[in-house]
Amino acid sequence: MSSFPVEIYCHILAQLPSIRDSDSSVYTLVNCSEANLLLRHASTFATLWRPHYEIRYRHSDEYKEKERRSITGSDWRALYVERRKLESRALETMRNVILGNTESFVPVGEEPGEEHNGHPVPWLQVVGRSIAQLGMDIYDMLDILQRTAPRMLRGAPREAELAYEHPTSPWKSWAMYIKGLVLRHDAIRGWIRMKDNPEEMSFEKALAGLSAFHGVSYVEISDALNSLASECRATFLASGVPIPENPMDLRPDDVAVVCERICAFMRSKHFAARHSPVPAEDLFPHRFITVPAARTNIPMALVYVFVAICRRFNIAASATDFPSRVLAHVAPGGGLPDFWVDVFSSETRAILQRDEVLQIWNRIWAFTSPFSQFVEPCTPATSLIRQANNITASIRSAPNPSFESHSSTMYPVAAIVCFVGTMQWRTGFGVVPDIDLEAVLGDLMAPRLPPENGFHAILKTRKRLEGLSYFICRREVRSHDAAALLPKYFVGMVVGSSSDEFTAACIIDWIVSSSTSTPMRTFIILSVY
C-alpha cells in the first residue's frame, strides 16, 4: 500500500464528502494522519481541508478571520484547527452551564464563591461576556448544535438518545440562547463601527443587522437575496431581457430596461406597495424577503430588495433619503445621466428623470436643505435610522403589541437611535435580555454613551443584576411511569409556581435517582422573587 504515490492518496481523500453537520470526513483525515508517514503527508495537504472548512464555517468575525488567514497563510487545515479550538472553549462553557457548574464562572477581579455585593455571582452575565468575546467565530457550531444536538450517549438505549434529542434538550436550548447573543453583539458592534466610519458597512448589511435580533444572520439574508437574484436572472433569460452572463458586461444603454424589468419581477413575487399600516415584525429584512405575506410593504423594504438585486447585476443602485417615500438612485455609467426608480409605484411608472423627481419634490415638500441632499445616494446609517423610525411608528400604531414582539423590535431600535442617530439613551433597558447585560449593554454600549447616559446605563444594569433575590431549592417529581421521566424541562427554562412559593424560577440543574418503589427526578431551581 505504501508503494502508491502520495498523489493517489490525495485523490482518494479528496472524495470524502463535505458535510456541514457531520465530522465523519474530518475524523477520517485525522485518523489517516496518525496511520503512517505517507498517509500523514497526504492528509495534511491544505487543499483537502478547504471544502470541509467552507461547508462548516460560513460565518466568522471578519477582522479575526483576516488575521488568522494572514498568520496561517490561508492554510485551510490550520484554519480549521483554530476554529475548532474556539468551539471547544464555547462548548466547555455550555457544558458547565448545563451541568450546573456555575461556580466556574467568576467575574474579573473576583474570587470563586465570592458574593457580588451581597448576592451570588451573576454567572449568566459572566457566561454572556465570555461567549461574546468569541463572537461570530462560534456561530456555525451553535447553529449546528441547535439543529442537531451531538449524541453523547453512544451505546446507550435508543430511548435515552431520543430523550437527549428532544427539542427541549438543554444543549439545543442553550445553543439557541447563546446564538442570539452572538448575533446581537455582532450587529450592534457593526453599527458602532459604521458610525465611526460610514464606509464600514454596506446598505444591505446595515439593515440586515435588524434581523439579528430575531436570530437571523446576515449570511442567511444574503443567501435569500442571492436566490431572488438568480431567479430574476433565469426569468430574464427566458424572456429575452438583455442581461449578460457576466454582470460586468452589462451595457449602460440597457440598465434602465433591466431596472424596469427587475421591478416587474418583484411584483410577480408579491413585492408590492402597501398603503395600510405594516406590522412591526414585517419591517425586518428576514420577514419581507422570505415571507410572501410580508412582501407587500413600505418603500424602504421594496427599495432594499431592488438595490440588492441590482448590485448582483453590477448595477450601481443605492437608496436615497427622499421624503415621503424612498427612491432608488441609479448611475448607469457610460456618460449617461443618472435616473431614479420609484419601486413603490413601479406598476404605474418606475423610471424617473431628474426633472420629474424635482416636480415631485416641489409638490410634496418644502425644505431649506438642498435638493441634492435627498436625491443622491444616502449613507447606510441614514437608511438604518429611517427604518428604525418606521419600526417605532408601527409599534405605536399597533393596538396591543405583545411583550415578545415589543422586545425583539425595540431592542435594535434603541441601539440604532443611540449609536447611529443623535437621540439619547433614556429607555429600552426592559427589552435587553439578561444574558446581554454585561456583554452588550455593560461592555459594548455603556462606555460609548455620553457621560451622563453612560453612567445611567451602567447604574441601571447593576441595579437590575443586584436587585434580584435569589435562593436555591429543590423540587421533586415522582412517577411510576418511566416515560414521565423524559426531560420536559430543560436547564435554563423559566418556570412558575402553581402555589405562592415563588414568582418565577430558573432551572439550573437536575438529578435523576430511583428506588425499588418510585423513580424520582429532582429539579434544582434558582428562584427569583
Note down, in words, how this protein is organized:
There is one protein chain. With 529 residues, the protein is α+β, with helices and mostly antiparallel strands. Among the domains are: 201-406, no CATH class; 470-528. 50% of the residues lie in helices and 9% in strands. It has 21 helices and 10 strands. The protein has a 4-stranded antiparallel β-sheet. It has a 4-stranded antiparallel β-sheet with strand order 7-10-9-8, with no helix packed on it. Mean pLDDT is 79; it is low at 106-121, 152-168, 467-487 and 518-529. InterPro entries: F-box-like_dom_sf (IPR036047). It comes from Thelephora terrestris.
List the helices and strands and how they pair.
Elements: H1 6-13, H2 24-33, H3 37-43, H4 46-56, H5 62-72, H6 76-98, H7 123-134, H8 139-147, H9 158-164, H10 170-196, H11 203-208, H12 218-239, H13 255-268, E1 272-273, H14 285-290, E2 296-297, H15 299-312, E3 316-319, E4 328-331, E5 339-341, E6 351-352, H16 354-364, H17 372-375, H18 380-397, H19 403-420, H20 436-445, H21 451-466, E7 470-478, E8 494-495, E9 504-513, E10 520-528
Parallel strand pairs: 1-2
Antiparallel strand pairs: 3-4, 4-5, 5-6, 7-10, 8-9, 9-10
Helix pairs in contact: 1-3, 2-3, 4-6, 6-7, 7-10, 7-20, 8-10, 10-19, 10-20, 12-15, 13-15, 18-19, 20-21
Organism: Thelephora terrestris
Protein name: F-box domain-containing protein
InterPro entries: F-box-like_dom_sf
